[in-house]
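Saturday, quiet lab. Running sequence design on the structure tokens for the scaffold JK sent over.
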């Protein structure tokens, strides 16, 4: 399994398999957050699939904010190499000590702006 799979994430995937939070909208619980610079992935659910895990969540900070599926192996391979500048390599990181929280309670302006587009 890839470097981003932690015991806590593995446990969350057992409790929140794909499609377990369908239709919950802002009430859906974010299980963990991955970040890469200004890009953030808010993970809602997922399932192990062979040597990988397929996650479902919201990504913000790219050209388009959107719901989508994410391969944990592919996410772990994202890297920018700044070693020539003496800064090392920038990799996707999981937010440590994150407490699962309903999306509506997360203090992230861009996420809340995205979610507001789906309100009636």
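Result came back. Writing it out in full:
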């Amino acid at each position: 399994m890839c470097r981003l799979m932690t015991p806590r994430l593995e446990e969350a995937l057992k409790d929140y398999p794909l499609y377990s939070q369908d239709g919950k909208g802002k009430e859906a619980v974010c299980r963990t957050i991955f970040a890469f610079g200004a890009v953030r992935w808010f993970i809602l659910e997922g399932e192990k699939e062979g040597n990988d895990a397929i996650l479902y969540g919201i990504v913000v900070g790219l050209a388009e904010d959107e719901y989508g599926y994410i391969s944990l192996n592919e996410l772990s391979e994202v890297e920018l190499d700044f070693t020539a500048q003496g800064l090392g390599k920038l990799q996707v990181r999981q937010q440590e000590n994150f407490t699962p929280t309903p999306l509506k309670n997360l203090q992230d302006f861009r996420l809340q702006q995205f979610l507001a587009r789906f309100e009636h």
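Notes for JK: The mean pLDDT is 90. Residues 43 and 89 are 24 Å apart (CA to CA). Ask whether to fix the surface positions before the next round.
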